[in-house]
Design a protein that fits this description.
Blueprint: H1 7-15, H2 21-34, E1 41-44, H3 46-61, E2 72-76, H4 103-110, E3 114-119, H5 153-160, E4 166-171, H6 177-183, E5 186-189, E6 209-214, H7 217-227, E7 256-260, H8 261-264, H9 271-286, E8 290-294, H10 299-317, H11 336-347, H12 350-363, H13 368-392, E9 395-399, H14 415-419, H15 426-431, E10 435-442, E11 448-455, H16 460-474
Parallel strand pairs: 2-3, 2-4, 7-8, 7-9
Antiparallel strand pairs: 1-3, 4-6, 5-6, 5-10, 9-11, 10-11
The protein binds glutamine.
């Protein structure tokens, strides 16, 4: 079977009878099985997916199918789907089944997408390599000695290896874009509040967003259109109606693009990534766009600010996992205190524990103002400085990651090195703005890397428009 880049191609093959939906689902099930070594899926709902395929094929023939008929999707294991297991790749949620579906999942299913399984990720979405999963690491399909990135590493590997057509991930500091970058796919983090977080297992609530991971910008736009919009279950979601993202076209007018000098000149940036940025910047200039190198002197503060604030939020969000309400309970638990202590000690992995402790520390009396309050102030400064750039520019262009995929175990013993993986992606989460990683780079080794485009707050539609242009002009995947 050919590899489909866009749902529109699948739909035309379904319409002409070249392909059937059960045939397509079988293709993905076979590929999941032959790529089991990637460890991208924690669970596959094969029978259910096949039953849905037959049902939706019927609907299609009757002309009654939804807009996502033909779309086979994997969901990150921190997104709830009623009646199905969800674990956030943690032992502490062992055996737990979702009592309701995430709004995003409900909306996908209502448009006849087929959910084929749940994808491995870093435990509670904390990580940049998928090595923090209680269920083992995920391997990068381009080179199985390297990581697929994280925390949505299973989702990224699944789409990159064509084990499903698209996936949902979540992005708190880069968890959609960083793995998208190093597995050569498209990853979109929408504006904060564009997509409901209802049914997403919370890591850091003022940062978390669900978003699509796809092989094309076109599909990312379509998926965003389906999952975005007001939701009574999430008070932080915007009440404005989303644009018709799926209808977006590349802009006709020249754009004003900011390139952050500090990212560009960052000593950690791989020379091949920098060279690719040069080519793209030059290509855009020649097409009539304005490129300005702008100063953004906050790069060094981005990652520390992110870690103070997200660990604080995580320490509070993860307090609910107490060995009583959800999932895992220690066998040796006796009495309430020991039940909490033992269940949490045994149930959480070491990175999650490190962050709970860090977050508890920064929130503790005596340190609260020195860390948490100050980090909130720095967040405001970064947000303002970012918005200021959009006063004069339509977009900000950066590499998504400093390099292509690193080797399994390479950063495992050095949390700081791992945290620096997110140096270019975290700004969008701190500022709440939309950002996308587009697969526009390949190293001489063949390993992919992405280029990141950020847009102003609420400008997801414009972001997607220019992404289509970048993809058409500079894609390395065609
Ligand atoms: N890698 C970052 C972290 O470890 C981002 C995670 C995310 O976006 N969920 O926190």
């Amino acid at each position: 079977m050919k590899r489909y880049r866009c749902l529109s191609e699948i739909r035309s093959d379904l319409a002409s009878g070249v392909e059937t939906l059960p045939g397509l689902v079988q293709y993905y099930l076979d590929r999941i099985e032959s790529h089991a070594h990637l460890n991208a899926f924690l669970e596959v709902w094969g029978d259910e997916a096949m039953a849905a395929a037959h049902r939706i094929d019927e609907k299609r023939r009757a002309g009654k199918a939804g807009r996502l008929a033909g779309m086979v999707i994997g969901i990150k294991d921190n997104i709830c789907y009623q009646g199905h297991k969800v674990s956030a790749s943690s032992r502490i949620l062992e055996g737990f089944e979702s009592l309701y579906s995430a709004t995003a999942v409900d909306r996908l299913v209502a448009e006849d997408a087929i959910i084929i399984g749940r994808c491995n990720c870093d435990e509670f979405a904390m990580g940049s390599s998928n090595e923090n999963s209680a269920y083992g690491p995920v391997l990068n399909p381009f080179n199985t000695a390297t990581v697929p990135g994280g925390s949505s590493g299973g989702s990224a590997a699944a789409v990159a290896a064509d084990l499903c057509h698209a996936a949902l991930g979540s992005d708190t500091g880069g968890s959609i874009r960083q793995p998208a970058s190093i597995t050569g796919i498209v990853g979109l983090k929408p504006t904060y509040g564009r997509v409901s977080r209802h049914g997403l297992i919370a890591y850091a609530s003022s940062f978390d967003q669900i978003g699509p991971m796809t092989a094309s910008v076109e599909d990312a736009a379509l998926l965003l259109e389906v999952i975005a919009g007001p939701d009574e279950f999430d008070s932080t979601v915007s009440r404005s109606q989303p644009a018709r993202y799926a209808a977006v076209t590349p802009p006709q007018k020249p754009a004003r693009i900011a390139v952050l000098r500090d990212c560009y000149e960052s000593p950690g940036l791989n020379p091949e990534v920098r060279a690719r940025m040069d080519t793209i910047v030059e290509g855009l200039r020649q097409s009539g766009h304005t490129i300005n190198f702008v100063d953004f002197p906050y790069l060094d503060y981005i990652v520390p600010t992110y870690y103070v604030l997200t660990t604080a939020e995580a320490s509070s969000n993860l307090a609910r996992f107490d060995g009583i309400h959800f999932g895992y309970r220690s066998q040796e638990a006796a009495g309430i205190e020991a039940t909490y202590r033992k269940s949490r000690s045994e149930g959480f992995g070491s990175e999650v524990k490190r962050r709970i402790m860090l977050g508890t520390f920064v929130l503790s009396s005596g340190y609260y103002d020195a860390y948490y309050t100050r980090a909130q102030r720095v967040r405001s400064i970064i947000r303002r400085a970012t918005r200021d750039i959009f006063g004069q520019h339509d977009y900000i262009l950066t590499p998504t990651t400093t390099n292509s995929a690193f080797r399994l175990g390479e950063n495992a013993k050095d949390p700081i090195a791992m945290y620096l993986e997110d140096i270019f992606t975290v700004q969008a989460n701190l500022a709440g703005i939309p950002a996308i990683s587009i697969p526009l780079g390949r190293k001489s080794s063949g390993m992919p890397f992405g280029i990141q485009l950020m847009g102003d707050h609420g400008e997801d539609e414009r972001l997607l428009g220019f992404s289509l242009l970048l993809e058409a002009q500079f894609s390395v995947n065609s």
